[in-house]
Amino acid sequence: MNYPFEERDDEQMAIEGDLEMLREDLIGELQAINQYQQHIESLGSEEAVTTLEHIIEDEKEHVAELLRLIQDFDPVQAEKLKKEIL
What we know:
Elements: H1 10-42, H2 46-73, H3 75-85
Helix pairs in contact: 1-2, 2-3
């Protein structure tokens, strides 16, 4: 845990920057899933629906990959996810 007056070394600051980017990427993937799902609900073309369903599956894989990376860099988040999954 970081405290307001605790000095952070360059490595810790780099990890925090990486985590910020990864979390932003995770947000983007989740927003994409929601957007594609909304499009599916209004599309008339079965081919388009099938394609977007496939894309959603890819996005969900990206979510899983990003969560794994976040857990690798953030032990507190890893513990929280572990607790919730079990």
